Every structure is written in structure tokens, then in C-alpha cells.
Amino acid sequence: MSPSRGARRTVACVGAGPAGLLAATEIRRARPDWHVVVHERSPEDVTYGYGVVFSDVAVRTIEFMTPALGAVLSSQVTWQDVEVRAHGRRHRSSGHGYVALSRHRLLAELSAQARDAGVELRYESPAGVDELRSRYDLVVAADGAGSRTRAALGAALGARVGHGTSRFAWLGTTAAFDAMTFIFEETAEGVAVAHGYPHGDGVSTFVVEVPRSAGGPREDLERDLGHWTRVFAEHLDHQPLQAKDLRWAHFPTVHLDRCVHENVVLIGDAAHTAHYSVGSGTRLALEDAYLLGQALGREEDIGTALAAYERRRMPGVRELRAAGERSMRWFERAPAHLARPAPQFAVHLLSRASLLPLERITADAPGLVAEATRLMGREAPSGDVLALPLDVGGTRLPGRLVRDLSAGASGPPPDEDGTYGCVLRAAGAEEPKPGAPGLVQGVVVAAGDLPGVRAALASGAPLLVLDLGPCPGEPERAAEEAGAFARAVRAAGPRTGRAVAVRTGLGPAEAVTARLRVLREAGLCDLADLAAPPGGTAEPEAVLDALDTADTVRAALGVPVMPSGFRARPDQVATHVLAGRIDAWCGPGPG
User: Fold this and answer.
1) Strands 98-102 and 77-79
2) Among 178, 407, 442, 485, which is 20 to 30 Å from 325 by CA?
3) What does the alpha-carbon distance between residue 583 and residue 389 come to, in Å, rounded to a whole number?
4) 543 Cβ contact list (under 8 Å, min separation 6)
């Protein structure tokens, strides 16, 4: 689709949001002889959002990509804290670093840069992709999360668009906030969540979110600003809420297999979305625009440049997109999370989408960590959450780290201070050397080995781990198999005085829960052991998925939960123990 080398080329950018404006500017700067036009459906100076927030990491990236915008950000509203308000309590965590400005100010700066670069801006100029593809050498589709370009080219791009279950609306208020503030209020209609932060111009952004799991208000009540002003009155200093365009929606999740089709490239929210709770959507859009301009500046052939851009950019957005979707799901399940006491709930929120080390949370919110630790029932020696004992079916583990030698793993002996709560060995294997005083010895036996189960039941091991292997994907089948196994174990002999853990391979959370529920009701699951695939994994997304499943199982069954075979640092494990997602961690070594 590219003209011959050296020809003057034409570019159409669809959408005058941050992605479209910066892309047009960067392309024009890279190729001053090209004609670049931005087509925008809406009138000029019309914006539908309130504030745009950037992390300090994002600001440094923007300062490198576009110094002029970086200079604007340096004079905007900044803050360091995240505040969680729930159960009538307020907990703060410092050391985060945010900058925010109004969306109007951001677009004004970007449109001025575009004009200075020689870009032609056409407002109230809707244009279809088929028409543009035939008229221009290159079409940059930056037409947002509801992209018409993506809809038209969906099959060619491998597009998949889903939606979150919560409903939300972007609102504003003159009430002042000095932190990224997450608010949770329980109302007659269910739990209501608000995300509030300052952005200048005397107005704060105030996103109201209603998780569907909480029931939610009627549609007419949703649109009643007075209702939400009353719900959040204490947090708004009794100031009214306002809306530029009161639209309630489900957040769209956008996945593409490809972002390029012939002479069309999708960027920004048209290509990927990041949930507003992680504040990265605009950052990704600006990065897209900058990298596209760089690619077009390096390569004379447009097709070659687009291919290079796609190869570099598609993997680059996955981490933030995944974090956004994980955070979105957390807020959708907020009503269930609120069963936790306020300090533990705050830690749970702060660690919702990452393997955050506990030492980082402690540095940012020492009082919160101390209070959450006390809630676990006792003071942690030297503040070490992993050194707290854990009671499992009448057996006390002296710590939260479990060492599994059943597959022949080796390593240093358990620490003298009892850091390991338990050492596991395979049924029939040689007894490991004694470790710290009071260290619990456990036996792992395959569920299909009924003679081994019988022998283990008769042994003196205080903890028996029954390894059920992979979990069927269907809850009904998982429950049926578990029931048959429970009957076989009961027939094998009594479990007198033994704590029993069930090790299950992961699968859909509903199936894992169904399997373990049957065994729990049969008295055979004092500890849920959620196992990684054979060989284990340190892949962060897999570890986070396991933690999500553990959280679901723990809440549903009320039993301690222990992931095994996943690799993470002890300080990362400690965070999720303190948050109440898990109770112990099993690995071949210290975490």
C-alpha cells in the first residue's frame, strides 16, 4: 500500500484524543513532508471526562517522549498517597507518586503541539475506515474503546471485546482530595465504590462504580446525582457531584491478535484498554503514538514500519493490560472482599494486581501493616508474618513456609528458628534429618495409591497430604470424583489425630472449589494445597492466578490455603499471607 520511495505521503488519524493527536504530531515531526490530517467526530473543545492521572514512572516516560508535555505535567497537581476508606476507617499508604491534570488541559496541549507541527485538525468530521483507506496511504485508528474501525476490521485483527460486570460513571466534584482515594460504602442497594483524586481547575475526578455482585440500584437511581451525593456525602464534604455527560457503562476489555491490517494501524484504547483503577490507559496511548512515529521515521516503507511497530508494541502492552483486568475483577468482587476487617482489606486492595513485597508496603504504611499483623491473632516475631504459627486440623505448624522434599528437592536444612512450618516427604521415603525444634513432618501420597494412603493414615506423621492430581474442568465432574475418593479413603481407615491436606491441580476456580468442598464436608480437607503444574512456575501471571484461586477457595470453604510449586520471594509471599489470600506457601526451598 506504500507509494514509491521518496513520494509525499498522506496520513489520516481517526480521533483527536491523546493517542491520535500525539501520533499525528510524531509522524509529522518524523516526516515533515507528509500530509497528516486528524478527523474527529466531536466539536473542538468538547471533552467528556474529568481528570487524567499518571504515575511518576509514566511521567518520566512522557518527559522523554514529549518534553513539552512533560513540562506541562511538572506544573500540575501531584501527590504521594493512596488512601483506602472502608468500614468507617481510613488507611494511607505513601510513596506512590502521581500527577494529574484535567483532560481538557491535556487535549489543549496536545492539539497545540499538533498544529505547531503542521498537522491539519478537522473537528466534526466523521469518517469511515473504508473511505479513509482508499484516500490515504496510512490510517491511524485512535478512535477509542468503542472504535468503529476495530468493529469494521474485527475479523482481520482477531479482535475480542468483553466487558466488566460492574457499572461505572465518570463524575466530578469540587470536594478536595489529596490522595488517590478508594471509597467503599454499603447502601440499601448494595456496595458502592468511588475512585477520587484531584486534577486541578478546582475540580476532582470522582468515578462511581457499582459492582453487580452487590445487586446494584435501579437505572433511574443510577442517573440520580443527588442519590450519589448523599451516598458519599461524608467523603465529598457535602459538596454536590457533577457530570459532563452522565453515562453509565460496563468497562470494555479489548484484545487484538494484530493491531495492523494492510495500511491501517490501531493504537490507544482502540487497540487495548487498561482499567481506570490502575491509571495507565492514557500512558499506553501516548507510548503507542510515540513508538509509531519512531517506526515510521526509521523505515521508508510504510508496511515495513507498521510490521516493526506491531512486533515491538503488542507484547509491550500485555503486562499493564493484564494488571488492569486483574484490578477490574478485584473491584467487581469488592462486596466479598469487604468481609475482611479494614486493615486486612486495605492490604488486600494494595496487593490486588502485583507481587508487591511486604517490605514496600511496610515502608509506605507501617501502621497499617502492624495493625493487620495484630489481627492475625498474635505478634509476629521480629515483625515476620511468615514466622507466625498456623493451626491445621489440630496440628500446629510453627511457620508459614513449607518445604516439599516429596519430589526429591534438596537444599539447606530448615532454619534453626523454625522458619519452615513443615517438611514434606513422599510416602515410604527416608525420614528427613530433624530440623528446628517442633518442626512438623508431613507425608505426601498419591490419591490413587490406596495402600499408600492406608499406610500413611497408620503412620505417626501429623500431616497427611493427599495428592489428587489434575482437577477436572467441570465442577460436577470434579465433585463426583472427589466423592468417590472420599469414600475410598474412609474405607481405608480412620484419620485419627491426623491433619489432612488435599493437593489439587489448578483449573477453573469453580471446579477446584467443588472438588475441595466435597472433601471438606467429608472431613478430609484441613488444608487446601493448590499445586502448580509439574516442575513448578515462577511466571508472575501464573502466580497471581493461583493467588486469585486461593482467595476464592479460602472464602468459599473457610479452610487454610497453601499454593505449592509456585516460585516467589518470601517477602512477596508475606504480603498475600497478611492480606488473607493464603495461609502458607509450599516450595522446594525458602519460598
Assistant:
1) antiparallel
2) 178
3) 10
4) 355, 537, 563, 566, 567, 568
Q: What is the pLDDT of residue 414?
A: 59
**Spatial distance between the Cα atoms of 226 and 504, rounded to a whole number of angstroms:** 50
* Separation CA 233–CA 189 (nearest Å): 16
DSSP-H helix ranges across 9-147 = 18-30, 56-65, 67-73, 103-116, 129-135
- CA dist 477 and 279 (Å) reads 41
Rounded to whole angstroms, the maximal C-alpha distance in the chain is 85
Sequence-distant (≥ 6) Cβ neighbours of residue 406 within 8 angstroms: 424, 425, 426, 429, 444, 465
Enumerate residue ranges in the chain where pLDDT < 70.
Answer: 1-6, 213-216, 378-383, 408-419, 429-438, 493-497, 589-591
How many Å apart are CA 245 and CA 289, to the nearest integer? Answer: 27
508: helix, strand or coil: coil
Quick one: how far is CA 111 from the chain centroid?
32
3-state SS class at 108: helix
CB atoms within 10 A of CB 553: 26
Orientation of helix 540-557 relative to helix 509-521, angle to 10°:
40
Give the number of other Cβ atoms within 10 Å of residue 561's Cβ. Answer: 24
Residues 6+ apart with CB under 8 A from 224: none
Nine-digit cell string for 64: 522523554
Question: If 0-12 CB within 10 Å is exposed, 13-18 middle and 19+ buried, where does residue 474 land?
Answer: middle
**pLDDT digit string (tens) for 222-246?**
889 999 999 999 999 999 999 988 8
Neighbours of 383 (CB within 10 A): 15
Three-state SS at 465: strand
All residues at 6 or more sequence positions from 546 whose CB lies less than 8 Å from its CB, including other chains: 506, 530, 532, 563, 566
Contacts of 60 (CB under 8 A, 6+ apart): none
